[in-house]
Amino acid sequence: MKISFRKKKLAKIFNQERLLVKEYGKENGRVIMRRMDVLKAALNLEQVPRIKPERLHELKGDRKGEFAVDLKHPFRLILIPDCEDIPRNKDGGIDLQSITSIIIKGVEDYH
User: Fold this and answer.
1) In the chain, which end has fewer C-beta atoms inside a 10 angstrom radius, N or C?
2) Is the pTM value of this prediction over 0.70?
């Protein structure tokens, strides 16, 4: 899957293990690297596991259209589809198989 970043600073941090660990701590830095490996290996969002440890899930409310992947609790890796119009299934749900490009927004504790 194609992955880009919302901010250049975030791309720089995510592309260097040392900066990831400095920014998010040793344990979360390593978890982020593993999650990024899973995202890079997937051909589309459908292939990202919806069970732990990754647990891809769509967010609700004012964050509708965003997705999160679990990190070390309570943190989540936030991402959005990189497309003008989010592809939909006939039932109105998001067609995860059609999403082949994402934008990483950041790491958050939105709880």
Assistant:
1) C
2) yes
